[in-house]
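Let's practice the habit of predicting before peeking. Look at the sequence and jot down your guess about where helices and strands might fall. Then scroll down.
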Amino acid sequence: MIADVQIKGSYIEVYDEKGKRISYMSASGKDVVGTAADFFVVEAGSYIETYYSNCKRNAYMSSSGKTVKGASGNSFSVKNGSYIEIYDKDCKRQSYRSA
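Done guessing? Here is the structure:
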């Protein structure tokens, strides 16, 4: 279970609820924009990517016109123009509403 994800120097580090580092990966060109219980969300260039706690990439989608608002539970939210969209960790849109 993920408790925290931080950029330290040139690495993205993933920590569990006991403060122990679970895994790490290069932070080059990446920005952590959301953390949920079992995945985290990264903006990398023109993509939004989701990663598991072991830093293995799960899924990705275009970030064109989208801004990640945050992640929680099994989903993350994105502002896309005048809409708020909810995606699962596989980057599949679950729902949307007017912002």
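How did you do? The CA atoms of residues 51 and 57 lie 4 Å apart.
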